[in-house]
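> run fold Transcription initiation factor IIB
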Amino acid sequence: MSDNVRTYTAEHVEDSTESETETATDEELRCPECGGQLATDTEHGETVCADCGLVVEEDEIDRGPEWRAFDSAEKDQKSRVGAPTTNMMHDKGLSTNIGWQDKDAYGKSLSSRQREKMQRLRTWNERFRTRDSKERNLKQALGEIDRMASALGLPDNVRETASVIYRRALDEDLLPGRSIEGVATASLYAAARQAGTPRSLDEIAGVSRVEKDEIARTYRYVVRELKLEIQPADPESYVPRFASDLGLSDESERRARQLLDTAKSQGIHSGKSPVGLAAAAVYAASLLTNEKVTQSEVSEVANISEVTIRNRYHELLEAEDEIAV
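> ok
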């Protein structure tokens, strides 16, 4: 055999592979600018060079838990798997659900006998998830809150707050003599106002299964008994939604806010419906910016009468003229 021909054994191949891996790993742990050691800044989610300060990576994902443990017992107690708990489900999302799709893990349809078996299992699973009348009550109410919030386009934080309010009302025994739907609707109405995304009583009543008078009565009762701190609705919080539904520009929205600010400084807003003021301000702003919309269009979007819009619209313009003078 010639001296120039080399024979490579499995050991040589493994050694060369390990050396290449070590070299690649070493390069990853070195700064590309100065060759210094890299350090991970977990507080800011960055990988920086300890020598020259170069930020090599940023916006890293923190894959650790959101809690801290100071001993092994506490760590074992806090460790968990699965989705986080939520107040929007009666069991806080701790139980399991059997999917409604009659398919196996490979996406194939189940046989008729298997479908019947899965349907029986779903039925028993639902029965086991609600152990008593209180849990059945809570499940029905939270389902109503979720349905109404979806119809009104309210975000998850409002649904979560509404669920907490309803749970408090249930724990403090405020439901006797009142309907589940009424208290659920009042809880959602209160949560929307607390979160700064209010909906008018007419809008709430439009998606609820109870009458407007009962919602208002139950809302006042729940707020009083639970001592909820809810500020009066700000007319400006309605402006973005009305302007978006009418297809108005940012300039019209800004002008509507200016009209409402002027009205507040003049004290015109006192004792008047915030929805009516917001609708009138949007209508007046559309005229001032030459993006004319009709009173009937604004009335339909805001669910307020045209007469109210006309009256408030004149008051807003008069307040604007007084400031100008």
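The radius of gyration is 31 Å.
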